[in-house]
Amino acid sequence: MSERRAQRTVDVAVIGGGVIGLGIAWAVAQSGRTVAVIDPDPAGGATFAAAGMLAAVSELHYQEEALLELMLASSNLYPGFIDSLAPDSYLTGYQRTRTLNVGADAADRQALADLRGVQVVNGLGVEAITVRAARVLEPLLSPQISGAFVVEQDHQVDPRRLTECIQLELARHGQDAVIRVQASGLLHENSADASSRVTGVALFDGSTVTATEVVVANGLGAAALGGLPEHLNLPLRPVYGDILRLRVPEHLQPLLTCTVRGLVHGVPVYLVPRTDGTLVIGATQREDGSGVVSAGGVYQLLRDAQVLLPAVSELELIETTARARPGTPDNAPLLGRVGGADGDISGLIVATGFFRHGVLLTPVAAEHCLQLIEGIADDRWRAFRPDRFSSRAPASVSLKGGHS
Amino acid sequence: MSERRAQRTVDVAVIGGGVIGLGIAWAVAQSGRTVAVIDPDPAGGATFAAAGMLAAVSELHYQEEALLELMLASSNLYPGFIDSLAPDSYLTGYQRTRTLNVGADAADRQALADLRGVQVVNGLGVEAITVRAARVLEPLLSPQISGAFVVEQDHQVDPRRLTECIQLELARHGQDAVIRVQASGLLHENSADASSRVTGVALFDGSTVTATEVVVANGLGAAALGGLPEHLNLPLRPVYGDILRLRVPEHLQPLLTCTVRGLVHGVPVYLVPRTDGTLVIGATQREDGSGVVSAGGVYQLLRDAQVLLPAVSELELIETTARARPGTPDNAPLLGRVGGADGDISGLIVATGFFRHGVLLTPVAAEHCLQLIEGIADDRWRAFRPDRFSSRAPASVSLKGGHS
């Protein structure tokens, strides 16, 4: 075709407009750099489904202490992150209300008590309370629950409103920041060498975005991107989840005043009350390869939610959603630069694999990516480097002239 | 306002474009008369939700033998009704496959066996079969069911496709038949006397439709219509129901080959397989005044459906719908002319209150209304006259000249 392809130039190109990509773009924009987010459907993937629990403490799993540190750091960054976005945190749905972890049967209570042991060892504040005390906090909880644990430090945000705010703020910063096209691959200084300096992004509409730094933040799509270094293995797998949205009728409001995370006969269920009078119930974890809403998943969520909160049966079911989260072998993100033959590959940063923690980890991912862009050394998050599952980079290819 | 109000003239005006109103309009159009259907959202009410079971036999309730006769008559009219509409019955989703009634526990089996007693006394064909035989017919049925009964005579139709076909055929008959405006009331020969001859319909956009006969077929909306005879009591009440639509994945097709009606610990649940690979699961009956999808209703349907057919958990949930059906005190329709002081009021026919049976009863309602319009005497359906709950008509008002 004779038509000239469109080309843009920005300081930083972010592939992927989920909460992670948008959060990074916002940090970049605030630093005075120009930024473009490349996504055909911003905030339409896992972000669209996410309940938005900011549960660094409650989400602690055994032997995931490195991840805990990352989550706590991000949790601490959250108030500042929200302040940077909105004059009133209400606009983002950010609420610093507590989280109540409740067990349905005796074994569930014991599992939560055991977890509390690990949480306390890690210096985290978790208070065991009686069922009676839990029902003072949340009167509609079933009297049949076996026990409850309060975590004052675990809060919530509304991912849909949060990402809406970021997009509005990016626009207000004078940046026509979001390009609604799918990225096809990375562009390199030496087009024959996928380990050479990254210089931009090619898009499926034939246009290109030239950038000093490219951030790969498109979740499960990251591994399918063209032009990744050949030795880089991004072991992402889809972990599907069903999530429900329900409307609380007038006479039942407030249904809950804080997030309730339950363990019901060994299966987790979360109830997250929004300020708009809706309730989010999540979330199943399925690795069955099916990205559609599962009747069995919806059934399980409604069943288990009613065990904890019988009034759920009286709510209006307004939305059922299924999405895939990008899982990794160690449940930790793929975050940082990628090693090449001669040190890290210039111009390339990866930020994906956030699994269940994308919303919580957005501020720390944004901060860390900006530090990498600014060349500030920060070794705290070395354990999350995206090349930790990769073979060693091959020896530098001998560049044959004329390709740079 | 100086603008002249639009006015149309037809032979017959039908208020309400649900399956009943459209079916009546189709019979009228075939008789060579002009017809207009007045509805802001045709086929958008109970018809939109309906599963479309044509279950005259299975729907028999104790002491509702008069209704049974009406249902059987309509069931017999169905093949001809479908033939009149579509060269291929597939287009309407009409399927003459059997219905299998199954019980979950011993009490459910007994209830179905007791009902079979009444059915057989009424000359209906219901065959008790073993669970093993039921699972030969439908291999995915749970081996835990307690018993099964085959009704060869109960079939199904797809109400959405059926009403789509009727609207297409009305258009093909050269009639711009559907007026997408809400009716406000009846027009009378004597505008001061709501028991005088009905001459047309007033619409909320200010226009009018003049007609020789007006059929009131707008379901629950009928009682709220202006200009009804004052002595006419239409005791309609909304009976809400939740209904689910699910997609059967390739590897589970065919999930069922016929309609399965279950009784699960005393609660009915219906599973209706469509030729397009979807499954309809219905239907709750709620009189809680809530027209929105109930989380408890969805839960109950998924729970009970899985008891009969465990593979339901593997389906995709694609739609949850709630609608109100127009219930009456005796569960029978309000169908026929309305008595006035001097015999039946001319120009007025009522066809509403079809409750759970609107789809099944459409052909007989259409036939009966056309007979009334044509002045053919048929006393078979006298028991369903719409004025059976009404006080006697007042003595004829003395007409003061100049109003006709």
UniProtKB/TrEMBL annotation, chains A, B:
For this chain's UniProt record, which GO biological process terms are given? thiamine biosynthetic process; thiamine diphosphate biosynthetic process
The Gene Ontology CC terms held by the record are: cytoplasm
Parts of the chain that traverse the membrane:
12-29
Q: Which reaction does it catalyse?
A: glycine + O2 + H2O = glyoxylate + H2O2 + NH4(+)
Q: Does Protein biosynthesis count among this protein's keywords?
A: no
* InterPro entries membership: FAD-dep_OxRdtase, FAD/NAD-bd_sf, Gly_oxidase_ThiO
Reported EC number(s) for this entry are 1.4.3.19
Keywords on record: Membrane, Oxidoreductase, Thiamine biosynthesis, Transmembrane, Transmembrane helix
Pathway(s) of this molecule? Cofactor biosynthesis; thiamine diphosphate biosynthesis
What's a single GO MF annotation on this record? flavin adenine dinucleotide binding
Instruction: List the PANTHER family.
Output: GLYCINE OXIDASE, SARCOSINE DEHYDROGENASE-RELATED
- For this entry, the protein name equals glycine oxidase
UniProt organism field: Cryobacterium flavum
Lineage at the top is: Bacteria, Bacillati, Actinomycetota, Actinomycetes, Micrococcales
Name of the gene: thiO
